[in-house]
Specification:
225 residues; alpha/beta; three-stranded mixed β-sheet; 14 strands
């Protein structure tokens, strides 16, 4: 995949992530998360995006964070070729796909990132292979990070019962109906389930989201080792 950061420089994290009732971010307060440039060394992280509609900064910012900490991000979609990201309602940049949901699975990755954008998860939740791909990370006990409208795909995968997460506010009823506890926080980390589920509400939360992502994914790598 062409490096997504080439078209949109990642946000510079500047605030600590919040903590509450066992749901927390890293809170270490440094740069783009974690304690060193190789925190994610040896980890391959899937970024799942529909052919169109992904909020570009929610792809490029965590992607750059994974790169900065030594991880290997991979763009997965429902079709080969390119995806087209968006800046809210305006067309953004194209990005090359590394693999498809029909030809890969959670077994090939250490963690999953689900960017938002309204059209992106709305498309993914109608694709059985995409839903199965996402569900596989929960079944394998691998960490998942999701932001903004991204949890719609988790609703379809039926993996939110008794989980705590946040999202764009308009998803609150959908997530509650799916059995989740919805909270309004900058970042939430829920370990009450088969895997660790990290969530944030919107692009403004990306600094905290990225720090918590490094902390969460690095912890999973240490456990796996």
């Amino acid at each position: 995949m062409n490096d997504p950061s080439r078209a949109n420089e990642p946000n510079e994290p500047s605030t600590q992530s919040s903590t509450d009732n066992g749901s927390s971010g890293n809170g270490n307060g440094n740069g783009n998360g974690g304690s060193g440039a190789d925190d994610l060394a040896g980890l391959t992280v899937a970024f799942l995006a529909a052919p169109e509609g992904t909020e570009q900064v929610e792809l490029t910012s965590p992607w750059q964070t994974v790169l900065d900490h030594g991880g290997a991000p991979r763009l997965i979609s429902t079709e080969p070729g390119q995806i087209r990201a968006f800046h809210h309602l305006d067309r953004g940049d194209p990005f090359m796909v590394d693999g498809t949901v029909g030809a890969t699975s959670a077994d090939d990755f250490d963690a999953l990132v689900l960017p938002g954008g309204v059209a992106n998860p709305d498309f993914l939740r109608t694709d059985p292979d995409a839903v199965a791909f996402v569900r596989g990370f929960f079944e394998a006990g691998k960490p998942v990070a999701v932001i903004c409208h991204g949890p719609w795909t988790l609703v379809e995968a039926d993996v939110l019962r008794d989980r705590t997460l946040t999202s764009w506010p308009s998803l609150r009823t959908d997530l509650t109906n799916a059995g989740a506890e919805w909270v309004d926080r900058e970042v939430t980390v829920c370990a009450n389930g088969p895997n660790v589920l990290l969530s944030s509400r919107k692009p403004d939360d990306l600094p905290a989201f990225n720090r918590a992502l490094v902390h969460t994914f690095a912890g999973s790598g240490a456990d796996a080792a």
